[in-house]
Amino acid sequence: VPYQWLKEREASMGRSFTDEDFQKFLLSPEALARQQEWEQTLAEMKQANMPAIGAGVLEWLPEGATIHARVFPEIKPKHNSFVWTMPGNGPAIFLYLERQSKAKFENTVAHECHHIGLRSLEQRQEAIQAGLPENVQTAMHWMSAFGEGEAMLAAAGSVDRHPHWEDDALARARWDSDMMHFNADLPAVQQMLTEILDGTLKGDEAIGKRAAPFWGDQGAWYTVGYEMAVLVEKAYGRQALNECLLDPRKLLTLYNKAALEANAKGATLAIWSPDLLLRLNGKR
To answer: Residue 40: how many CB atoms within 10 A of its CB?
Structure first.
């Protein structure tokens, strides 16, 4: 089934994927040389407590969220990992099989499960946006990308645990370095949202091109989203953070409140423009 779903996914994206090509890949010297690595890694993955991972993630989601997903560790030519839903079936987390610890595997699955659980609440999110101006709805749609940072926090399981706790020292240092760009990244995202509200930036293609660097390998959707989620969780608790997952405008508002309080005590955190918040809430 994982192989069949992978073929369907590649076909849906217009990519060539044949049994003959896959067999050639599996029989290549490079693939055969990695067989022991794959066997050992998969054996560790199988020791993971999957129901416990899901239960832990649900604690970081609003009440009523559900997680129904399959996890496919896959040996395949492309080294990417992703979530994809087979038409007529539930979502699956496709993970490229490479050497990694059981903890890293569990953290990755938890991260993706947070996305899947939040997606189960789409109807409630859409109800909140119903009746809002189109440009505000568009801005809120892109603001939902801060879910990458929120998923980082949920996967770590605590504001006191490094979001790359399961990774090596190099990965942790890189995250810490990226977080140093927070005060520059927040205004960059703000400028994009302002242009969406102004109507000078519109259309999925144009907005997607502008937003792409905020994903990157670990861009602003991750770092800014994570920092805001941490501050809101610390200052106002889990219930408040969960409400922000349904309405990202609340995340920006509560973050501003917490950041201003921190700045009054000596911090130097960038804040969202009050004008932007008013426009997102239809008050200007």
So the answer is: 11
